Amino acid sequence: MDSTLTRVPKNKKSISDLFAPIGKWFSNFGKRFADGSIGTKLSHFIFGAGNFYHKQYIKGALFLILQVAIICFMVFCPTINGTPYGYKALANLSLKNVSEGGDFDPITGEFSAGSDCKLMILFGFVTIAVIIIYFMLMKMSITSSVKADMDEKIGKKPSTFREDVMELFDSRFHITMLTPTCIAALIFTILPTIFMIALAFTTYNSQDMNDKGTNLFHWNGIDNFIAVFTGEGSLGMEIKNRFLPVLGWTFIWAIFATLSCYFGGIILALLINKKGLKGKKIFRTVFIMTIAIPQFISLLAVRNLLGEYGPVNGLLQDIGATSGPIGFLGLHPGDSEALAKVMVIIVNMWVGIPYTMLMTSGILMNIPADLYEAARVDGASTVKMFFKITLPYVIFVTTPYLISSFVGNINSFNTIFLLTGGGPVYTGYQAGGTDLLVTWLYKVTIDQGSYNTGAVIGIFTFIITATITLITYRRSKAYNEEDTFQ
Amino acid sequence: MKRILCMLLAVIMVFAVTAGCGKKDNKIVVWVGEESAEFYQKVCDQYVKDNPSFGYTIEVKGVDTGSVAGIVTNDPSAAADIFTTAHDNIGKLAATQCAKPITDEALINQVLADNPASFQNVIYSTLNDKKYLYGVPYISQALFMYYNKAYVTEEQAKSFEGLREAAKAAGMKAITVTGDDGFNMSFALLATKADDHSTTVKIYEGAEATSGGSKGESNCQGDDTIAIIRWLQDFKEDENGFKWASPDGWDADLRNKGCLAVIGGTWHYNTAKAAIGETNLGITLIPTLTLTEKSVEGLTGVKAGDVYRGGTFADCKVFMINATSDNKKYKAEQELVKFLSSKEVQNQSYLECMNVPAYVGASEFIKSCYDEGKVTESEYNLACTQVEMAEWGIPQPFLTGTLNTYYYSKNGPPIFRAIIDKTPYPTTGDQILTETESLEGIRKGLYLIEYIWMHGNNPKEFPSSLPQKA
Description:
CATH topology of the largest domain in chain A: MetI-like fold
Shape of chain A: flat
CATH class of the largest domain in chain B: Alpha Beta
Order of helices and strands of chain A: HHHHEEHHHHHHHHHHHHHHHHH
CATH class of the largest domain in chain A: Mainly Alpha
Radius of gyration of chain B: 24 Å
Helix content of chain A: 55-70%
Largest interface: A-B, 51 and 59 residues
Distance between the termini of chain B: 87 Å
CATH architecture of the largest domain in chain B: 3-Layer(aba) Sandwich
Oligomer: heterodimer
Number of helices of chain B: 19
CATH superfamily of the largest domain in chain A: MetI-like
Distance between the termini of chain A: 10 Å
Number of strands of chain A: 2
Strand order of the largest sheet of chain A: 1-2
Strand content of chain B: 15-25%
Radius of gyration of chain A: 31 Å
Shape of chain B: globular
Number of domains of chain A: 2
């Protein structure tokens, strides 16, 4: 075993190595400008000029059209719902030049609804993205011209538009396929994420805004982050009094939910894969059934089973074990918080174990039989073989899964929200006894409209999960010895 | 071949992500309650057919009416051109400029001619200090009581004491509520003396419909309120008394013989009917309660034996026009609202969806429907009871956006529940209201609620001696 798990040190990079490519890029940029043809030089200012110079008219025209379009976008500032893009959007990012609106023409119904700060921030970021795209286009235009220069230098005819297009379907097909994905990621993932992060630094809280009868909000620096510790923010003492208990429970939940499902799954897989067991396929199918049934249906079914009028309470009362219903899931304010916490962990095992079992089954079947054979020859017992062969093998392969499972449990919205709804309720607070950061976040934003505080909670959750993931993963054998395991 | 397939998938992806981005300019979208969507779509289709010059198609969507105001204030451009909401949201929607004022003379005249003064007082708000009509009433609402006739006689249903007697015999709890929010708990807070309808409770009485205007007068610390709360505390502790609705739903309480009755509105009718069946479903006014020696101890403004009737907010659902709706549609939208809120459509809505009309004199129509056999006895009782119960109630007097928020979302209702439950309640000043059993504890809780109504937040500290408002 030891010979297969040899540690290979990673290449260490110094900080200066990180900046080297940037310096190289600037150096190349200047060199290209100096050495390039007149077309290449002009391409730095007029996109496609180099292509026109090399008679690549269609390509040149496309670059030029895009440049003109972006410049028009920046100068003429197209407007959607009364909020402009372009340079005005950059100015609007300060959220200083805002209007309360309210001008109304009773005849035509013309109504100025005032500035929309949400759109002002969003359009500001979109404009920044457009500026970045402008510079990317500039680089592409220059690169294209330089390539044509080089072709001419070696006596080759610069590529035609048709050849460039054909290339996009041949040697550069990956670019063709990745472009829509990147654009979609930019629009639907990166921009909303930046937007939500930005909200954490604003006073965007619909309740406070309703109080003041306004749609306007403004930047407030790191006040929302400080409020977590002082209780001065829009959620008052809730954020101060409930943040740490919710964070603590989130960790306890994530640890127990992860480990219980992980080891439960391994044990189940070992039992099912035991040699000589009859009906293995049936057992596997039964457990896979719990995966096949949508999780929310399973959870709601359990909620009904354990509910006030559910069969479990009915049975307990019928046999005289209890005089009234037991609040297993903490759905009433006075119910036991500890019991609710234990119950969600147990129920989560039911929906979580089959996943680990399924994966571990596959791993177990792939453990080389000769390892066990050799161990047996050496006189190892079954228990010793489990701890020296099976478990290290499974843990090595499943460490990334274990980490992603831990992070997934930190953000396990469904289980908590559908089973307990975060209850039992703490009177006067949004965050109940079993609320995780993520379910609390939902209540704070959707129920309370405290988008700024919600964004702060989201950022904290991200920092915590990202830190844990990075530290754990980088210290795991699966990362450090990924190339060594045979 | 693979590449062509990849390209096709990429194109499909682009179409998929941009699907639904278009907006039709010749369509007016209307949001109504889920239970009435089919009906309103039918009448709107007929309206378009009968008025070819209208020029727009109409799409009716059913929504959870309780969430509409939140959706509209959050993003008006995502909401319908015309939407329905409870009247108490008007102030908030007007203040945040999410709704357009109504200016069509014919529509305004119809509203003024058809609706009672109590509704007319709460459908206006201001824009740039000018008063405008914002909401057009079309459904009236009030709380009353559903009960299980299999266990409760008509006589027993008249009082909470009678209910308790029936509950004791059946081995159940007497009554529950459909929610613990400010609206549902009005049955206790707005209880009035049975003989003269009097109460010391005031909520924004005389408030002005302007942002920054007077908040009027509020009071919930009167002796009668305290006595009723003490009575409810005892009633909740009684094993055959009051219970909060099951997390499985108040209908689960009715269905599973968890309790005998529930305080609800017409919009709960179908659910209540499904829970215990139409033959077992009794409908009546919210019962009376008789103050006990214990509940009046230490109070001077009330005495044991005083009888109070459970109260209610008497509300109306209104249509409003979205501020971000295209100006070109403005005229057509007002025409459509005029049609949808007309007496004829309200009457049809009652017949098909059990929505009790909001206009004055609707009870005559309701009676004629029963006489002509168009509605069942239970449906007739439903409408009559609501109309009668509304006489014991007051419209939610939320004239500005701010006051609405203060009443509902600033922890007043949870404090009220904490007092009923005798549980501690945290305040922003880090002071914990640890006991809610004593007279002093109840006074402190009610002081907090009243303070929140007036200021929107908790007081930094309690006054050294609480005012005693008999």
